[in-house]
Amino acid sequence: MSVISGRMDASLTQEILSSLGLANKTAAWGTLGTLRTFLSFGVDKDVQKLLKAIAGQGVDHSTIVEVLTNRSREQRQLISRAFQERTKQDLLKSLRAALSGNLEKLVAALLQPLSQFDAQELRTALKASGSAEDVALEILATRAAPQLQECLAVYKHDFQVEAEEDIRTETNGILQDLLLALSKGGRERYSGIIDYNLEEQDVRVLQQTGGSSMAGQWVLIFTQRSPEHLIRVFDQYQRCTGQELEDAIRNRFHGDAQQALLSLASIMRNTALYFADKLHQGLQETEPNFQVLIRVLISRSETDLLSIRAEFKKKFGKSLYSSLQDAVRGDYHSALLALCRAEDI
User: Fold this and answer.
1) CA distance linking residue 30 with residue 304, whole number of Å
2) Residue 225 DSSP code
């Protein structure tokens, strides 16, 4: 298997799919997620399984986990509606009453529409001191435009305030400018045509120093340009200056602004590696950071968790599955392993 060198190489996944002849055939491959549509899905059967699991002598945790971590989000929503129709009870409330602790939180996240889950995470991040530049930026920068707009609509409905207003209230400076720009969902789509003039223009702008207008240009470039364009700009910047752009960020910016720009650079270079790093950090804490683990594993389980697993193994020399197995204890252990899906040899 050949290894494609250079920063344009997004991840090990591209190499793997290239060897299979599927690199540009997403329809054939289907998804880079670990959780896919369950082909033998029977909504009535699943309703009966869950009803039996929570109404018996003791709560059957394993059945609840087995059902909910083997169905797509769309299928889980169908189960919720069917449960309500057949039992006149709300499935989420019934499971909350039957479960506790981190497993209860994980099951609740699995049963929510992703837009609602993201909206709640975004609200918590903006209202909690010290986490806005991390979680809020993660959500605003990594969700596809339609998904982001749905999240912001739910945010307004559930909290009776625009996310933009909370961003203005809870943040300031360049971090605020970055989050507001990202919330517009206006990042350019790559057309397949390389704009060398714009590339050179952006490199020149990033080489300039001083002044608030300079910071504004950084915000524009980092929030509007496509990832493909930015990777070329990063490479050209290094060729022109002999310095990686991340080093320039560390020299010119401080605090929240520095962290936000470094995170955005990481996302643009390789989104899967960015999430692999977040998972690794979450597992390195004295107690595993449950909120990070659940947010990343659930939000990426139907999109690119296979890519994240590949990047995790490549960088840290140990699979994500084994790392979860070693670090996580408690009743939600099996659920997280089910979302990760499998060992990477």
Assistant:
1) 11
2) S
For residue 108, what are the contacts with CB-CB under 8 A and spacing of at least 6? 92, 95, 96
What is the Cα–Cα distance from 111 to 101, expressed in whole angstroms?
Answer: 16
Residue 288 CA to residue 198 CA, distance in Å, equals 43
- Cβ-Cβ contacts under 8 Å for 276 (sequence gap 6 or more): 308, 309, 311, 312, 315, 316, 320
Rounded CA-CA distance 344/319 in Å is: 6
The whole-model pTM stands at 0.88
Nearest to 345 by CA among 325, 324, 320, 315: 320
Question: Do 183 and 167 meet the contact criterion of CB atoms below 8 Å apart?
Answer: yes
> Residue 198 and residue 204: Cα distance in Å, rounded?
10
Buried/exposed code over 260-295 (b: 16+ C-beta within 10 A; e: otherwise): bbbbbbbbbbbbbbbbbbbbbebbeeeebbbbbbbb
What is the per-residue DSSP string for 297-339? HHHHTTTTHHHHHHHHHHHHSS-HHHHHHHH--STTHHHHHHH
Per-residue pLDDT of the chain (345 residues; tens, 9 = 90+): 443 334 444 455 555 444 444 444 333 335 799 999 999 999 999 999 999 999 877 899 999 999 999 999 999 999 999 999 999 999 999 999 999 999 999 999 999 999 999 999 999 999 986 666 789 999 999 999 999 999 999 999 999 999 999 999 999 999 999 999 999 999 998 989 999 999 999 999 999 876 666 889 999 999 999 999 999 999 999 999 999 999 999 999 999 899 999 999 999 999 999 999 999 999 998 889 999 999 999 999 999 999 999 999 999 999 999 999 999 987 789 999 999 999 987
